[in-house]
Protein 1
Amino acid sequence: MDGKFKKIVIDNSDTIVHMWLDEVDSLKDGNYTSSISDELFENTNREFVNVIFSSIQKQGASISLEEFSEKLINLGWPLSYITDGLQVFRRVTVDYILSQSDQVDSTYISNVLKSVDMWVEPIIRQLVNEYSGSWEHIVSLQRVALQELSAPLIPVMDSITVMPLIGTIDTERAKLIMENLLEGVIRHNAEVVLIDITGVPVVDTMVAHHIIQAAEAVRLIGSTCILVGIRPEIAQTIVNLGIDLGKFPTKSSLRKGFTAALEITNRKVVDLDGKEESIGRMLDSLNGE
Amino acid sequence: MGLQSCVNINKEWDIVGARQMGRDIAREIGFGTVDQARIATAISELARNIYLYAETGQICFEVIDNINQKGISMIAIDSGPGIRDISQVMEDGFSTSGGLGAGLPGVKRLMDDFDIKSEEGKGTEIRALKWVR
């Protein structure tokens, strides 16, 4: 049976391709592909249908299928283009085979459906796998990139280091912060560490708890931790939550924190008459904007 | 009552999603930055409680638009272990997970209205409401 259907389809591939192209073209309007030029759309459709037919002929996965999916992924076309296209192909092919047959009963129809499904399914499976594989790859790369950004420690000058935190702090990141902080304090021989939370959107009890623990751990190894960059709205929520941050010094900005750090280490910024501000400018640039 | 939108909490990053959605809604209704931060923090606490204790649950937001006032209502629902002694968890400094124990009482202080229902072994439902001033 299967061989017979296949023969019908392959012998009449031109007609089926034609029907398919018409159907897919009608999907284009007001759909995902409306921003794609007609020429590219047509070429891709032709390539797509060739890939489908070559895969049916060869029975199962083929290299052209892999190349095609790679190309679509690179072009950034939606997965729905492929699933829609194959759905249309299934419909058109079943219709065509049925219209070419003389006696049609329910077993015949179910045989046709089964055969066509068997041709289309491996293609769908492989294309969807390629797509999700590429997404997973991107996500894992981004996770690595995020991790690299997550807890940097900057030695600004002798015995003063800064850890600027930007973005959401989750459990994993909190652990990294603690580790990097302690390791960095020892390595740079820092007396004062400034933790800057200007870029942390929300300070809830979990984040506060981790910061308190980190500060306490820094205190245990003999250094001082100053929490800087507390925005007014964050200060209010911390008070509302009833979190006690009284165990270590806090400052509103990195600039003030840095001045305090200098005081702790018995230093201060001195203007060199006239062409002073080299340190002041450095502080400004540290301050973010 | 306005439309309701929900966020499922299954993993830690869903907390961020819930927070983001709550903050967006709050901004739309016209909350100031301080109240936005309060709302985001409250959502963060509720969502984290779901993630920590019940593992899965839902946070739903509703915009309340009366004649004289507007507000956001959030409902955190889970079918986790429930809370045995509600008055105990509403005390400052009580925590079973080694945290600060400021979460629930903190949320109550951050919001204008707070209601908690819980049954041991069945789950917890917390409603919190904040009016635009």
Protein 2
Amino acid sequence: MSKKHILPIVMAMGVATTIPQANAATTVTIGTVNNGDMVRMQSFTAEFEKSHPDIKLEWVVLEENVLRQRLTTDIATKGGQFDVMTIGMYEAPIWGKQGWLTPMDNLPADYDLEDIFPAVKGGLSADGTLYALPFYAESSMTYYRKDLFEQAGLSMPEQPTWDEVKGFAQTLHKPDEGQYGICLRGKAGWGENMALLTTMSNAFGARWFDENWKPEFNGAEWNNTVSFYVDLLGTYGPPGASSNGFNENLALFNSGKCAMWMDATVAGAFVTDKSQSNVADNVGFALAPKQVTTKGAGWLWSWALAIPQSSDAKDAAKTFTTWATSKEYSQLVAATSGIEKVPPGTRASTYANPEYMAAAPFAAKTLESMNKADANDSTLKPSPYVGVQFAAIPEFQSIATQVGKLVSGALAGSMTVDQALKSAQNITSREMKRARYYK
Amino acid sequence: MLSLKQRRRAQTVVLGTIAWLVALIIFFPIFWMILTSFKTEIDAFATPPQLFFTPTLENYTSINERSDYFHFAWNSVVVSFGSTIIGMLIAVPAAYSMAFFETKRTKSTLLWMLSTKMLPPVGVLVPIYLLFKDTGMLDTKLGLVIIYTLINLPIMVWMAYTYFKEIPKDILEAARMDGATLFQEIWKVLLPMSKGGLASTVLLSLILCWNEAFWSLNLTASQAAPLTALIASYSSPEGLFWAKLSAVSTLACAPILVFGWISQKQLVRGLSFGAVK
């Protein structure tokens, strides 16, 4: 073929592929995050399409922050690119109130909505209407090395205080041997260090806003929290802790470098998985630490499936979301991938199954943590917002990301705790005033 | 005292060593990415990082099972080549008129064109998203071709302009005196003379389109998503993913690396020709 013939052919092929092809089945486009449970759900596409031949599934898998930006742009402009959106407890009530999501009512009788944990349902609702069906849910808890505790003659209480945690960290911190007393999130971000720090501040009796939406970073409670956090992680944490997020800490813990780690309950499946953890047989579980209160000490989060109002395949989307969050789906996962791989934290029936409880050593503490978390009552003093490790208001993402950077800066030593909190107070006050929460 | 020959030899050795060192430093991240793609997730996260390990193909197998690589790669090829071809069809005549029929506003027009590159893309995301939505171009390859052409056009015009400026006007005038039409003047005289420079413009445009992530992530979903969207699907804030991410990045880079390798002769010639050096 001569060269002059190649260009038109390539161009014609390009044009041909841009023409949409007719398809008899309804296509449901699902935007989701990349994590083990979601990837597993994607692997069951063939099973779903076999049992629902009139529906075809298309997947858009993206990193969490990219997905959040992508979905927000689409739903706010009524783009209609997605029929099912994977959203969290932060978005569900805000988007639901805006009228952007389809209410999850008239669910099939065998769906058994009552089986879903009330706290999870509450977190995905606005004004009593459920806007998303939970795929999996998580709280936070304490992971510790049973072997190191035993060698040092220490014993981890059912729910330690942060002071006790500091004492343990002090004893077990041996940096010369590559062993650090504690690993915690230090990377800046509203879903990174601020998730941990907000639960920690709840335990220390602090809150983001008072009843009039005024920020409280200038109070003693926040000062105690951040000072304690910076001292604990700065003294007994790994080097460069201010850039560690979930994955970095997971890698450190799995390679045996952390004596303790406080993070999401979902990590239970990773730290006990022998294919990726060197310490799988030596992991102990306790509730997330308390301090002056147990309220809001462990967080509450759920990845859930929602249907945007802009979808033109709402019925097919609902068929898919009810299937993916059903007991039938859990049974499919148990039969094909193992019972310990069933999406955790959403259904009471999962935890009533003795086989699951036996197969997942972290299940009992996950259940206990989930039962303790309450998004509507997470602070010692009354607060006007919903959410344990966040406040479900549109401004929170931006504010908490900025505050997260300040706290991370204090941890890295680029500013003092007082400077960080003063700036946090100024930034938050300005943003809340601008959003007209108060004058 | 060193003779002139010895000094030159020493100079060559020193310069050669520096060149090799710089090349190795530039290549190291790519080397590490390829190496990591053959590790298990636990090896990829190991501290200190491991240079020696038991290689595995499990990441590539898992990507093959989970994603349709060729669907994403084909989208990248269509979008990159499509926008480069359209871009060149516009850039060459534009640069020709600016280089050979310069007016008092040519320089400021060129600067204005380049200034559009200084706007952060996120600033125009919502208007462009709405335009695409209303014209039905969301998640289409045609939409991406148009947006890539528009974002790369200023650089393509600028580069072509600087290459054309190196060509003496007299040669084109001579062609005209011999009775060449405008098309013949460009096709038979100008383009062969600036082949090297234009080849490097084409390659640069292809690389920019291939690597573009912001628009491809925001304007596509399942149908038109290119390889950059495939890479983004393997990153996760919860769970170990470095090895798989490295494998998918290696797969995404491979076609353009091979293309660059094949056309490096033209690229080097192009970069040492004209004002963009």
Protein 3
Amino acid sequence: MPLHRRRFSTMAKVLDDEQRWADLMRLAHTGDSQAYNVLLQELSSAITAYLRKRFGYMAFVDDCVQESLIAIHHARHTYQFGRPFKPWLFAIVKYKTIDALRKNQRIENQYVSELESDVDSNGDSMSSGYAVNDKVEQQLLTSQLLSLLPIHYGKAMVLTKLMGFSVCDTAKMLDISESAVKQHVRRAIVKTRALLEADAI
Amino acid sequence: MNGKHQSLIDSLSSDIENKQRTVLSANRVTALWLFIYIPLLASLMWWLAPFRDNVLTQLLTTPRFALETVLGFLSVSLLAYCAIKSSVPGSLSRPIFWLTVSVTVSWIGHISFGLYVPALEPSMAGKRPQCYFEALYYSVPASIVLNVLVLRRYTLTPFSSGLLAGASAGLVTALMMQVACMYDAYHGLTHHLIPAAAVALVSAVAVYLIAAISKRSASA
């Protein structure tokens, strides 16, 4: 398909989504649970795609999608008909994403538990360390938002917040002190927030 | 991907009520603020103790005092508008927010500039003996009303929303005091604007705490 036609069809799809979601929300406001179910399913896919593009394929993304869906449910009465749907939607998604990054609790990550069981069974922590490093590098290169962070901030954030390693493990892996890890993560979150807020939908 | 969240989606969609509560738009709240609350407040203040005698003449003959009052009106209206807008996700635009900040800073800056070059000749005429406490008393119910309106929506920035709502409630009283009480820039700053700042700060902390508690209870 020629480039201009492809662009036109993408634009038409974006406008379609906007209108359809607004219509579904209008139906949901009248108590149509079927329409609301369809809306949440479509939003779930859209939010997942949005976050994966920016953060890569991580368990963190699923947590954010879930939190965003719950927030959308609680905030649905604030959507004003006739106003654009996407700024309303993505303001919630961005807020929930930063909120999830800020939370101190470690996320449940299958990757970390698999890695720990590998280390236990093989006792080969060196090769596992390289594997983690590769994964982090790949994550930083492929995701749109993380690639914009300074490399040391990005690594600290991916390891602690997105992959679920503890501050102590991250400090060992990056060969820096624990307080330096905490500081890098804090700055990475501030930078991520600024990047997300500047991000036009 | 949807499969992962399907059970959540099903439970959320089975939870919707037939009739949604509706919220007043920011324009309506600002209009109510301007055309109902300010005249009510002015009437109450007039009833309790009359305004200073020559205030109308001062407004008509002193352009700087008139400008200061207009800036005050703009400031309190924009602050109320922003408070309500900030409680709807993605609704408050940056230009409006910065316009509000600029107008408010200009107003307070204009009053402060009066310390060196007064807009009106400082005088004790119209002095209200309890103006500091009056400024607090009148601001608190207004601040509660605005904060309830903010909390009924879904604010993503509770501290800022509370600060904007409290600032609007506090400054509207300060504005009325500038017209009703004695005119002196120093008196205006210490007895009219400091209570407004206190109300704004308390309101911000209160909204932040209420939002945090309701968020925690919702997630529990």
Protein 4
Amino acid sequence: MTKRVLLAEDEPNIVESLTFILERSGFDVSVTTTGREALEEAQSTTPDILILDVMLPEMDGYEVLRRLRADNRTTALPVLMLTAKGQREDRETAIACGADMFITKPFVNSELIAAVQELAAGEPA
Amino acid sequence: MVSDIPGTRIRQYRRDMGVTQAALARKVGISPSYLNLIEWNKRPIAGTLLRKIAEALDLTLDDLGSVAEERLRAELVEIAHLPALESADVEADRSSELIGRFPGWARGVAALARTEREATTRAQVLSDRLSNDPFLGEEIHKMLNRMAVIRSAADILVEYGDLTDERRDRFIEIIHEEIRVLSDNGEALATYLDKAEHSERHLTPVDEVEALFDAREGRFDEIEDQAHAMTRQLDDTRPVPRRAKARALVEERLGDAIEQIIAGSPHVETEAAAARARRMLADYAVGAIMMPMPAFVEQARELRFDIEALADTFSAEVDTVCHRLISLPRQDDLPRFGYLKANASGVIIEKLGFERLIIPRYAAACPLWVLFRAQQSPEAVIRQRALFPSGDRFVFIARAQNTGMTGFGKPRHYVTDMLVTTEVHSAMTVYAPDLSSVVEEVGPGCRLCTRQSCAHRVEDPFTG
């Protein structure tokens, strides 16, 4: 069964590239461009994987993640965090908020796909 | 042009005076061949022999460039012991030889070390900015986003050979667009960092303001002239109202003159330094109104430069008198003073006008200076005859003053003002030491000090 990836990212060109490579790798991709939308979308549609940018308008990625973890429907949702900041404290914040994986921009396409596939494989089919 | 190096200078002066090498060598008790080596900078020269040669040629040590050389030597010795050079086994004890034989290299090494120090400081400042500055954080975030897109799209072009023409064109367009934005980001960042670079050329505001005062030899005639005319408006003889009135006059009428000095100085670059310069020039102007120079010189001579008696005479504070003393005209019948101010933790917070006193650039000063002892007997003037390892003798005159609140149980915060002069200059003052007074052996600070067995040493001796 095709896995559904929710991509929460506000940079249109990143969205375009990521959507392309994810679809080519066999995922079904839907996109949100604000933190609030990402939260609502994740709670209502429960995707298989969430790719979550940290710097999002309206609500940042950390806050989205905290709320997802506090909600029964999404507490176990696999989340890959994506950020332009590669500093250790950001990684620690992401892990503390409950991220399963963490990838910094600029990323390598194949690594990102491998991470998403790993998260997908961890879920019961 | 006269050289900075003593050997070369000796040769030039000797020839100008028509003295033969043999005659000069005989006069100072060395062989002509040894003098020849000195003159061609193949042997280091300092201390007693340099003094003898200076006397024999009727010159001062300054004429022979020894002050500049000594500063350079102190700097090289400090450099030799910087942690970064630890493994290089630099011959710190041979720095005089280096200066004598390869003066250009010696100056070059010192210049490089200064550049390195400034670069390190700048890197630290920029690193702090990177982590704390909101503009930089935002700009870098944008750039990383742009790079992420470019990288991802470029990889797609390479890795997916089956792209439709439409797709391929779209990703090329994305790359093109993102590179344009990235270069705008880069330009904004470069402009921003360029501004930051200019504002941090001097290490601290204290350095910048010191450079301003040094360049003017501690005197600002444009303030003096205007201040002189305001003195008669000080009708109150009580110190506090008198000072307050002088300050009000400065604020009211001398603001423009002060701003012009700051704006016209190449030394004051940062806003912090401008603020400090404004404060110090205002203090200077207050002193100039309370103690106009002609009257101050007359009274100072009369009272033999006694800082407390002068403070009484002019109803002024002692530190204002000290500042006034460093602004004395440079003439032979007036003593020259330098000035240091230290806070209770021993940090030197002001240093003006005494280039011969070598203060370490990279470390703390000598704890044996009376500057750091004055707080044990606040408000009392104490004098110290200080003998430096180089043979230089200074007379230090220090007085600690409460800047905290007054009243029972209120915390007192002492700062110490210290005047620096030479024994020769001090002879014109009440502080002239008599021959029986103790000469205290002090140093420029542990790292530059040759007193190997000093009980107060806290860092290893580096000089040889």
